[in-house]
Amino acid sequence: MQKKLEKRLLENPKSISMNKAQVDKWREGVDARLEELTIMSAKRNSQLFHIDETVQDIKVMVKEQNGRVRLLEQQTSAMKAIGSIIAIAYSAVITWLFNRS
To answer: How many angstroms separate the first and last alpha carbons of the chain?
Structure first.
């Protein structure tokens, strides 16, 4: 961009000239925009921090829920195993009763 300005200045020196008031106005505009960008960046960083904190909380909750689900699945498997053993025992007893006579 600086090369473009230098080229324009060499071609027509009066096209780029600005008086002090214009330069001051331009600088104020740049400063205002820089301040806006700084504020927006700070807000974005704050929001990202909040989002990261929330995601960490969710991860902790999911780990807790996974632990509970694992425990319930183990209990269900144990009940199924006990039920299977009882069913086999009853089947054996009924088979023995029918074969006895």
So the answer is: 106
Show pLDDT as tens, one digit a residue, over the chain (101 residues).
556 655 665 666 555 566 777 778 888 888 888 888 888 888 888 888 888 889 999 999 999 999 999 999 999 999 999 999 999 999 999 999 998 86
Residue whose C-alpha is closest to residue 15's, from 25, 3, 7:
7
- What is the domain extent for residue 51? 20-100
In a domain, 27, yes or no: yes
Does some domain include residue 7?
Answer: no
- Amino acid letter, 57: D
pTM as predicted? 0.46
- Whether the CB-CB separation of 12 and 20 falls below 8 Å is answered with no
